[in-house]
Design goal:
The structure is a single chain. This protein is α/β, with parallel strands linked by helices and about 220 residues long. It is built from 4 helices and 7 strands, in the order ααααβββββββ. A 7-stranded mixed β-sheet has the order 1-2-3-4-5-6-7. The protein is globular and about 45 Å long.
Length: about 220
């Protein structure tokens, strides 16, 4: 049974020290070996997209406006538990198939990745985004783990992060570290803005400390 939980991929030095100015070779989505675990992740993601769509249409109809946590609640309820780290990496390689979904970029995908990571028993995770044409927001929501992102991220990376480490080997969008209470964020590319609501933890930009213990230094 355990052999189904081990995708037969060789990443080599893909997640070593990266130069943000250089293109990094990635494994193409078609090279990912599908297995029962990956199919389980995909089913949860597709069901979550469907449920979020129903929720979004209903709230628009009655004019309700709430915070982002409803999206994470749906993602968390859809995401399977105890998923191995390498299967989450494989899933990130398949996400190009869903870029045309209206909830892909802004509202759901980053929540789902975060929920998979938060519900896993493992500590270290690799996410690949540099094969995508759109950016994923909310990666590292309520994070307590170690996440390396190979590529760009969108809005709100490290939102409500409590501990652990997020490394972005690419560019980041607005409101980096909003609500952050602890841990570290390392931005190896450019970023649009830092949040004004950072309560703890450190943020580094290209190796330079720009937030120390929640206090902005720039």
């Amino acid at each position: 049974m355990t052999q189904n939980l081990e995708p037969k991929l060789c990443f080599g030095d893909l997640f070593g020290k990266l130069d943000p100015e250089k293109k990094v070779e990635i494994i193409k989505p078609k090279e990912v070996k599908r297995n029962k675990t990956l199919d389980l992740i995909v089913r949860g993601y597709e069901k979550g997209l469907e449920n979020y769509g129903l929720y979004d249409k209903a709230k628009r109809k009655i004019g309700i406006s709430e915070g982002e946590y409803f999206g994470y609640h749906i993602a968390k309820s859809s995401a399977p538990s105890k998923i191995p780290s390498d299967s989450i990496t494989d899933f990130s390689l398949l996400l190009g198939e869903y870029e045309n979904n209206e909830y892909f970029e802004w509202l759901f995908t980053g929540f789902y990745l975060s929920a998979l990571i938060n519900k896993s028993k493992e500590q270290d995770f690799k996410i690949i985004t540099n094969h995508l044409t759109k950016t994923i927001s909310w990666i590292g929501y309520e994070n307590v783990k170690n996440i390396d992102v190979n590529g760009n991220v969108g809005y709100g990376v490290g939102w409500y992060m409590e501990e652990g480490k997020i490394t972005v080997n690419g560019n980041a969008g607005n409101l980096v570290g909003n609500g952050m209470k602890g841990g570290e964020i390392h931005l190896n590319g450019d970023y649009e803005s830092l949040s004004r609501n950072i309560f703890g933890g450190n943020i580094y930009h290209k190796g330079k400390l720009i937030v120390r213990n929640g206090r902005r230094l720039i």
